[in-house]
Amino acid sequence: MTVIESNPYKIHGALSVKGSQLVDSNGKPFQLKGVSTDGVGKYPQYVNRRAFKTLRDKWGVNVIRLALYTEEYNGYLSGGDQKELESVIDHGVRYCSDLGMYCIIDWHILSDYNPNMHRQEAADFFKKMSLRYKDRDNVLYEICNEPSHGTSWRQVKSYAEYILEELRQNSPDAIVLIGTPEWCQDVDLAAEDPLTDYKNIMYTCHFYAATHKEEERAKLNRALDMDCPVFISEFGICGHKRDGTLDKKSAEEWKKIIRAHGLSFCAWNLSNKKEDFALIKPNVNKLSGWHTWDLTASGKYS
Questions:
Q1: In sequence order, which residues have a C-beta less than 8 Å from that of residue 120 and are 6 or more positions away?
Q2: What is the C-alpha to C-alpha distance for residues 6 and 296, in angstroms, rounded to an integer?
Q3: What does pTM read for this prediction?
Q4: How far is CA 174 from CA 68, 91, 177, in A?
Q5: Integer distance in angstroms from the first to the last C-alpha of the chain?
Q6: At 10, which helix (H) or strand (E)?
Q7: Exposure of 132 by Cβ count < 10 A (0-12 exposed, 13-18 middle, 19+ buried)?
Q8: pLDDT per residue over 175-186, tens digit each?
Q9: Cis link prior to 269 (omega < 30° from 0)?
Q10: How far apart are CA 151 and CA 167, in angstroms?
């Protein structure tokens, strides 16, 4: 049974990482349970206070991931209005703060598969965000979404160290999430060679249950066996190819690991786009106050 807290931040306060576990201000293990937007530039209408309140009060969501595409969909670095995109993020942070929820600012690389492609731009962005929200203990930073196409962990680690030099000047204690190679399936590589000079670091694992199964779960289990702090910052019960395939059996195997280790997670994605990933049905135009019948199969399961 989902325990719904009316003001999670008021109860749990600033978070930190203790060993492999995310803990609250009282040092007790704490699990973030949330949803991710599908690009704040694609669907800015879902970044609204009533939507977040519905998610908090009806489904026990305590964290919202604000996905900022860097390249795709008039992204932050590909022609998008940077001031307007930052404004959507600012509204999202404010709504989460008002509602006592946590918030992840996600630098959503995708086709720019190696985060070092835009390393300086990312450093400038996180320097700005960490200064702007330095007094917001409910804000977490995800510094690269899904490294891929042969990007090595060594390359990601070098990038992370560079970004952290800037980010930590303003927000020395914020939780920072770091993507791992192969679209965040190779979290075991990070576990074997973690960053050691910074605290409050977690490594991300993503899965789409109809595609990622025993092999990917084995990688996650290896990382957990090495006491790696893992955050499932994106998942779905479908496959990654948008072919209509749902796999609840595989999803349940993933959920068993999540429950056993108290892993935090965010479901992809909060939109009514006509695709398997979307949580809202495509014919539903409501921006808040959703009922069960307004949700897709992914939405009902997540």
A1: none
A2: 25
A3: 0.97
A4: 19, 19, 10
A5: 14
A6: helix 8-12
A7: middle
A8: 999 999 999 999
A9: yes
A10: 23
Q: Which helix (H) or strand (E) holds 232?
A: strand 230-236
Query: pLDDT tens across 118-168, in order?
Result: 999 999 999 999 999 999 999 999 999 999 999 999 999 999 999 999 999
Q: Which of the residues are catalytic?
A: 146, 234
Integer angstrom CA distances of residue 250 from 198, 245, 265, 297:
34, 12, 16, 15
Based on its alpha-carbon atoms, the radius of gyration of the chain, rounded to whole angstroms, reads 17
Cβ 109 vs Cβ 145: under 8 Å: yes
DSSP structural state of residue 175: -
CA 207 to chain CA centroid, Å, is 12
CB 30 within 8 Å of CB 22: yes
pLDDT of residue 245: 83
Q: How much of the chain is in helix, strand and coil states, percent to nearest 5?
A: 40, 20, 40
Q: What local confidence, expressed as pLDDT, does residue 301 receive?
A: 86
How many residues in total does the chain contain?
A: 302
Residue 90: per-residue pLDDT: 98
Positive/negative CA dihedral, 118, 146, 137, 236: positive
| Average model confidence (pLDDT) across the chain | 96
221-265: pLDDT as tens digits? 999 999 999 999 999 999 876 667 899 999 999 999 999 999 999
Work out whether the CA dihedral 155, 80, 288, 283 comes out positive or negative: negative
The DSSP letter of residue 246 is: B
